[in-house]
Amino acid sequence: MPHGTVTEPARILVVGGGYVGMYTALRLQRQLRAEIAGGAVEIVVVTPDPYMTYQPFLPEAAAGSLSPRHVVVPLRRVLDRCRLLIGEVESIDHAKRAAILTTLATDEEGAGPVALTYDELVLAPGSVSRTLPVPGLAEHGIGFKTVEEAIGLRNHVLEQLDIASSTRDPALRDAALTFVFVGGGYAGVEALAELEDMARYATRYYHNIRPEDLRWVLVEAAGRILPEVGDEMGRYAIRELRGRNVDVRLDTRLDSCEDRVAVLSDGTRLPTRTVVWTAGVKPAPVLAATDLPRDGRGRIRCTAHLTVDGAPHAWAAGDAAAVPDVTAKEAGTPCAPNAQHAVRQAKVLAENLAASLRGRPLKEYAHAHAGSVASLGLHKGVAHVYGRKLKGYPAWFMHRVYHLSRMPTANRKARVLAEWTLSGLFKREVVSLGSLEHPRAEFELAAAPPPPPPHGTGPAGNDEASS
Fold this sequence. Notes:
Blueprint (H helix, E strand, L loop, with lengths): L9 E6 L3 H13 L1 H5 L3 E7 L3 E3 L4 H6 L8 E3 H4 L4 E11 L4 E6 L2 H4 L4 E4 L2 E4 L3 E3 L7 H4 E2 L4 H20 L3 H7 L1 E5 L3 H17 L12 E5 L11 H13 L2 E4 L4 E3 L4 E4 L4 E3 L2 E4 L3 E3 L16 E2 L12 E3 L4 E2 L16 H19 L13 E5 L5 E5 L2 E4 L1 H14 L3 H16 L15 H7 L20
Helix pairs in contact: 1-11, 7-8
């Protein structure tokens, strides 16, 4: 090398700051500590949010059992040896090792998107809600995938109780107290169960609303719910929910929710002000704007080493990747897109990427499914772990222990545990902070010009005709 030549560091671009993105970058900055310190490697993480959301805790955040800030992990604190860019990757040309992205400053600068070159690519953008062309869904549906949606839903449910308590219109009251959840997977069942618990508790503070006045409806297109925990535990979950007066509709679809009326495929019409959509997810849209191979469901085709099939220096894992499950009985079966695989895949991906940079052999990702746990509200749950089936309090306790162990950082673990302890000692909080969604409303009202005086009234408030 000629004297004085400066070598550019090898840039690792991590797209996404969720499970896979955060855990991969976290392990990479540990594995490549010496290379980063010496300027030989640079890790750049591009993510829309400066935090990672631990989604299994969203139902508890929505119900008020956990503070929203404790179910997210601040990326700048955790990824202290990475360069963090808050923005969106719009497209990737892997043949040229270049990504086109926008940041929070892009509009202010007026210069348009920027191109970022890289040497190694880690694709971990996760997934987005899978919606269907249901009339009225875009206008009235509520998602449940982010912490903002969880808190918004909590405020919305409590606001409906306030509306029902104060209205003199019986039809409006019934619509406000009817809550429709579409999707019988983890997100839908756990969100409904936790919020039903919270709303039933909150009714004790309303003089004219009783728990039996609330109507909760779970709509599922398949013939069962919670397929991950098995048929027996799924049937138990249905019995548990129906025992709490939850109307579980199997083999049923939402056909429309226009004009605040949920129309089901069985002909039922439900006037409601709350339709929560949790009917599955799909890969992030950015995957369609790449030159990388995808499978029939739009996910990036990967090898068992978590490299992108046929694309050197590209890696992927999590919801966005079709990774072959080497432990499956049928060859070619992909790993399920869940957190259990995502966290473990991130570890192997980071180790393989570091090994690749050092010229060492790669290892295959292999993890047999250990089981599943699901909460059905406070002290209630179902679990199917290592062949053992649990229900009620033991399953709920296992749900909490498992997810506490998977929560990143000791700081967040301690805060979550402290909140659980305090919630067991004190009464549940049932305050709606819906005004947080419009923080400038009060100031705009104060800054607005005063309304004109009534017609015929002078500045002093006296009738001009009589003066």
